[in-house]
Amino acid sequence: MTKEAKRFRPMQENMRIRHYVMNLILRNGNQSVKIQSSRSLAEKFSVARGTVRAAVEKMVHKNYLITRRGIGTFTNPSKALCVSRQVPPKLIGIKMMSGDMFFLDPPAMRTLSVLLDEFSKKNFIVRFLTGNPVTPEDCKYELDHCYADGIVGYSCTPGILEEAIGRIPVVGVNCGGKHVPAIQYSYHNAVEELKQLLNGSGLILCAELSLPPQLKTELKNSGLRLLRKEFSELEAAPGLPGGIFLPEEYLAEFHALLQKRGLSAQDCKPFLLTHSEKSLPYWRFESPRRAACRKAADMLEAMFRGEQPDGCIMEFHLKPINQTSIKEEPV
After folding, report:
1. Buried b / exposed e across 170-201, counting CB within 10 Å, b at 16+?
2. For the whole prediction, is pTM greater than 0.85?
3. Does the structure show a pLDDT above 80 at 329?
């Protein structure tokens, strides 16, 4: 085993063999191809031949590989991920935060859900990059073994993204890096519009609502009078200010509360962070996750066509639900 491989192992030794085989299946569609010998694979991945044999036997048992006595071991066409081997779908590597995410908290799950939804619309196939590289050598090692056609990094350190530049298409979301096309958010215009709409009134922030850090900063610096309250506290509040930022799941209860007090959404304006298309009288910011993930998918697709899009700032505007909520401006 090489010194580099000993120092950094982004995955278990047997998983490297598995990823090699799965990549062959993806790239060759319904065509059966012969895998390298155990000796060649042991040298390729700097592992013991016994490790290779064990990994291969397991994939034969799972029917991903077929052994032909006296000839060799081949991929099983019945396990093809795409029918047409002439134009296989693009394989996108997803790198979230450090990559070493054993558990996913709710915000990470929501981010991943939206990212996968947008990538599915492009007919992409995805795999997760689970290594936690530190040095440029670590990043190169992980990139060499990921087999991806493109990479999107979400709130991750830029190392592997910088290493990928010039080799495969790469996009950063909420992260940067030298020469890495990146998508950043700006809520400045939206908060300025919100201030005009409130016209000097205060704004309640529901404690149950998780706001993006950029929006929190803009609100904090806006000069608005901000109050943080649990939703349950609103029932007993003597009066409501000009606006309230609340989670969408509380909308029905909020409107019932307004009706009890003889108020309307015009009297106490509700603001949401949502992608919903429901016809309700509120103002909203489109979910930054949805907007950024959609833009990342578009940018990767453009790169596969040979275009080289720059990074962009996504400027959010506060609009009624039936109007455009996103304006994109080049950096």
Report:
1. bbbbbbebeebbbbbbbbbebbeebbeebeee
2. no
3. no
